[in-house]
Amino acid sequence: MKKVLLVDDDVDFCEATKLLLDSKGYEVILAYDGKEGLGKVRAEKPDLVILDVMMPEMSGYDVCVVLKADPELKNIPVILLTAVDQALFKTTYTKAMGLMTEADDYIAKPVEPEELVRRVEDLLSKT
């Protein structure tokens, strides 16, 4: 069973997405901020990480940069999931920043559940 770590400060989104991915046969681990997510990546060694960008403690961009710089973790696929496109005038985060993190995929919120599953399956089929 493939293990997916979902890191997002939106508890409702986490629970709904966990149910969705559980139903597709994935083991889903949840974290609610960047620091907690980074710790869980190191402890759990998931097969894939889904990171929200705008979170307390540590942004998804920062977590992704740390993961991709770590020789033991850099090959874990990372999907950045964010509402940055919608919040562009309210945030200092940009889409270009996301592309510079070496994330394996970048999905704008809101995302259709089927699209998220498809992207997860695509990345996991390459590992």
Estimate the global geometry from the Cα principal axes: globular
Please indicate the percent range of residues in DSSP E strands (runs of 2 or more).
Answer: 15-25%
Number of strands: 5
> Any low-confidence stretches, pLDDT <50, length ≥5?
86-94
Strand count, sense and barrel status of the largest sheet are: 5 strands, parallel
Distance between the termini: 13 Å
What structural class results from the helix and strand content? alpha/beta
Rg estimate, integer Å: 13 Å
CATH architecture: 3-Layer(aba) Sandwich
Mean pLDDT: 88
**SS summary, helix count:** 5
**Which strand order do you get reading across the main beta sheet?**
2-1-3-4-5
CATH topology type: Rossmann fold
Corresponding CATH superfamily = Response regulator
Element order: H for helix, E for strand: EHEHEHEHEH
Q: Level of helix content?
A: 40-55%
